[in-house]
Design a protein that fits this description.
about 425 residues, 15 helices, eight-stranded mixed beta sheet, 2 domains, Rossmann fold, five-stranded parallel beta sheet, alpha/beta
Length: about 425
């Protein structure tokens, strides 16, 4: 149930155009339950007024700023007033620029025309999400976060092309083979939607088919919408029609994931490199975030920025597991240098295996299902094993050294305990020695 604010939501409009700032604030003031004040951002005035007024939502008119960069302004606001959610108003339609705003700490980006309905809906939504985020953080600190068995793993790429979908699909498939439990993969990369292609499955249903039924989701509907892979892995695919993507926001993703967690033991989420409200909701919901990067400067730069964002969002450091894909290839930056630059130990590596992955992509094959135990397949299996959860009720045998076709579905003589993510970060490399 959505929480009702205990008092008016305090908003601060930051604009170096007084007339423009008042226009935006006047739209908010006409809505019951909202208050709005206006301040210039220049010369530190915005930061001072934000600290003084303690707003819950800050609306930053990025295009109005004089002598200041919007990205730096967002970061300064995040540092000075960490409890406030920032909404950016911008005329920019460049996807890279919008991603930069989100990585800097913005919770939403709006383009003109700035109507009353659009502004009010954004303010209420980001305030609601920020309240939930704080509540979840408090619950996790007190040991009350998600006591059920489901483990949610979000796979996020530092940038496009680093192999996020490949890692997500192979981890989900390996989890199914390792645990024999109920595993689902959710394609939350709504624009690209490559999970179906990677698994070589086709369906007439997708995630958006659940939207009309969010108030009455049930197992029968879920079974109709999910597509089943030959391994038994269940997949919730991205919308087939791009025009339906806009109808999927943070609230929709949160409610769908909350329902799925009651029906599966593991959920793997493939997320888009460009973070939006839906992507952030998926990351918030996850127990573990697998951050995929490749060993070159552009990807590592974005990985570093994501790690900064994760800290601002209040994620504990152990929630993010760094996976270096295409490691130790020619001209690759050494792992030690990557760890030093990012300030985090790597969780696993996947060796460079271009031909293997190209063939798999072209034939709709999952690498971990192919024969042979070397290279990428072995590393992805080990990564999946390290992401399993060991509890007193659920012990899993180690499958290292046993791939499909080599007795995978036979029980070994004695089970061994899988390594939980927190411990595995300090263990040996996930790639073959």
């Amino acid at each position: 149930m959505d929480q009702v604010p205990s008092g008016p939501i305090r908003c601060l409009v930051l604009s170096d155009s007084p007339e423009g700032g008042e226009t935006i604030a006047s739209l908010l003031r006409t809505e019951a339950g909202l208050t709005a004040s206006v301040s210039a951002m220049a010369f530190g005035e915005g930061i001072r007024n934000a600290r003084r007024g303690e707003p819950e939502v800050i609306i930053l008119a990025a295009d109005s700023l004089v002598g200041a960069d919007a990205l730096i302004s967002i970061e300064e606001l995040e540092a000075a007033i960490p409890h406030a959610a920032v909404i950016v108003l911008t005329t920019s339609t460049d996807a890279g620029r919008l991603r930069d705003f989100v990585l800097a700490g913005a919770r939403d980006c709006l383009a003109p025309p700035y109507t009353r309905e659009t502004l009010v809906n954004s303010v209420r939504k980001v305030h609601q999400n920020e309240t939930r985020r704080r509540d979840r953080l408090t619950a996790s600190i007190t040991g009350g976060l998600r006591q059920h068995r489901c483990q949610v793993i979000a796979v996020h790429g530092a940038k496009g092309g680093v192999g996020t979908t490949t890692v997500a699909v192979n981890v989900a498939t390996a989890l199914r083979l390792i645990t024999k439990e109920r595993i689902a993969i959710v394609d939350a990369s709504l624009q690209a939607g490559d999970v179906g292609i990677a698994l070589d499955v086709v369906a007439n249903t997708s995630l958006d088919d659940l939207l009309p039924h969010l108030n009455g989701l049930d197992a029968d509907l879920l079974n109709k919408v999910l597509v089943t892979h030959s391994t038994g892995l269940r997949a919730l695919l991205a919308p087939r029609d791009l025009e339906r993507v806009d109808s999927i926001g943070a609230e929709e993703v949160r409610r769908i994931l909350a329902f799925l967690t009651g029906h599966f033991d593991y959920i793997v989420i493939d997320t888009a490199p460009s973070l939006d409200a839906a992507g952030l909701a998926a990351l918030d919901h996850a127990d573990q975030i697998v951050l995929v990067t490749t060993p070159e400067v552009p990807a590592l730069k974005n990985a570093g920025r994501f790690l900064q964002l994760s800290r601002r969002l209040g994620y504990p450091i152990e929630k993010v597991a760094l996976v270096v894909n295409r490691a130790r290839g020619q001209q690759a930056i050494p792992i030690a240098d990557i760890e030093k630059s990012l300030g985090i130990k790597h969780f696993a590596t996947v060796p460079s295996a271009g031909k293997t992955f190209i063939r798999a992509a072209n034939h709709g094959e999952v690498v971990v299902l192919r024969g042979g135990m070397g290279g990428a397949s072995r590393s992805l299996f080990r990564l999946a094993e390290r992401l399993t959860v060991s509890t007193g009720e659920r012990r899993r045998p180690s499958l290292i050294g046993r791939l499909p076709g080599a007795g995978l579905f036979r029980r070994p003589p004695g089970p061994t305990t899988s390594v939980p993510p927190q411990t595995a970060r300090a263990n040996a490399d996930a790639s073959p020695g």
